[in-house]
Design a protein that fits this description.
binds magnesium ion; 201 residues; binds guanosine-5'-triphosphate
Length: 201
């Protein structure tokens, strides 16, 4: 998929005021700091279109990016950030869940997992929740930079084993680095395929 244009369309705290669901969209979720916003920038070849930070909790709203005037990339707040107060955690969880449950134009939710660390219970919980609600999803291992290659492969295998226990068919699993663009073109090809209006379901 070639990126011809990309711009922030809206930032909202509630699914009800998100853009009309007339164009397909893909969303990026995962623990705070896993690299959601960085991956969106890498895919869209923009430096700071989605706001990135070393500090967890940077993204706090539902951000819709209109791509090629045809589809949306959606950047979401992270989950599992210990420093966030209980009330905020509950608020973000509700916002995320309601959003994920109410977008009829959602063609794929990408669950991002840090390839540098072993898969966490909260990641598996998120994957299982999506499965239970029949929301289409794929998994992306992030930060698989050259220097983390060995450990990333180890965690890839560990994750595959966990998924095999739960699922008859393993969901699509990608490995990327926003820093050295590993796997970015491959992922763009997948996004093009799932957002193709002529795709047979
Ligand atoms: P929140 O919005 O806070 O939930 O975080 P996020 O998931 O959007 O993460 P973000 O893209 O802001 O990145 C968090 C940190 O991870 C930043 O310091 C990034 O530079 C770093 N990071 C993101 N992608 C990569 C990557 O591919 N490799 C490495 N080494 N670091 C990365
Ligand atoms: Mg972010």
């Amino acid at each position: 998929m070639k990126i011809h244009s990309a711009a922030l369309a809206s930032s909202n705290a509630h699914y009800k005021v998100c853009p009309e669901d007339t164009k397909p969209e893909v969303a990026f979720i995962g623990r705070s700091n896993v690299g959601k916003s960085s991956l969106i920038n890498a895919l869209l070849q923009r430096k700071q279109l989605a706001r990135v930070s070393k500090m967890p909790g940077k993204t706090q709203l539902i951000h819709h990016f209109l791509v090629n005037n045809q589809l949306y990339f959606v950047d979401l707040p992270g989950y599992g950030w210990a420093q966030v107060g209980h009330a905020t955690k509950i608020k973000w969880k509700k916002m995320l869940r309601e959003y994920l449950l109410h977008r009829s134009n959602m063609v794929a939710v990408f669950v991002l997992i840090d390839a540098k660390i072993a898969p966490q219970a909260i990641d598996i919980e998120c994957i299982n929740w999506l499965g239970q609600h029949a929301i289409p999803f794929a998994i992306i291992l992030t930060k698989a930079d050259k220097k983390h290659k060995m450990v990333a492969q180890k965690h890839h295998m560990a994750l595959t084993r966990i998924l095999q226990q739960e699922w008859a068919t393993i969901p699509p699993l990608f490995m990327v680095s926003a820093h050295n663009r590993l796997g970015i073109e491959n992922l763009l090809g997948y996004i093009q395929a799932v957002t193709d209006p002529n795709r047979s379901l």
